[in-house]
Target: ADP/GDP-polyphosphate phosphotransferase
Amino acid sequence: MSKNGSQSKTKMKRKEYEKELRKLQVQLCHLQEWVKQEKLRVIILFEGRDAAGKGGTIKALTEKVSPRVFRVVALPAPSDRQKTQLFLQRYVEQFPAGGEIVIFDRSWYNRAGVEYVMGFCSPAEHKRFLELCPQIEKIAVDGGIILIKLWLEVGMEEQEIRFNARIEDPLRQWKLSPMDTESFGRWYDYSRARDMMLEATDTKHAPWRLIRSDDKRKARLNVISHILNTIPYKKIARDQVKLPKRSNKGRYDDQASLRGMKFVEERY
Model:
């Protein structure tokens, strides 16, 4: 990554990526144990344009750790009841207890992005959100929560490539919603919404960190590295695990008792 945040056009090779990812995932396991021991409360929220790579980054971040510690939250559209609540209420309900890292796959910043651009909230509601959000985040941080806000920024050309790949690949078509295709045509509306959001909510107590994500592999590594550098942790020494001897008490042919049961047909 250059000083101005631009990313090299040379894409990272898979072999190099997997080697570096494993190193970072080992450190994430150490971080996990530290968070559990110290009863830390951590929020990591991912925002960015559609097809910026949020899902893949979250998967790389969480695939080797416990879902009991790294809890992913991806809230659906609010119910009729939730629409009458305070806007942040349903998100606050998901905040971490001691020993948890909650990862928001999109967050309360929906109001500053898709809701504002698509007209799901009024200009007054949008303005009010931008005014109140820094105050609410300060309350959370002052209360001991470690808040990490990440914005994945994908380029216009790369986003189009990824959208077309989703259209053509039946394994990825589920990722393409009518809202996604609508957002594709509103690139500059989303850019302006992003700029207003960053200007209003990039605070000393809860700063934004931007990641260029045209190269998905580099972006994932940069995100995980940033998280590890942001949360102070120590490697906890663990006792060597030894398997006990199996007891032969009550020994019997436990496979014979399964005869006659219906197993799944072995097609492979």
Notes: The chain has one domain: 14-235. The longest helix spans residues 14-38.
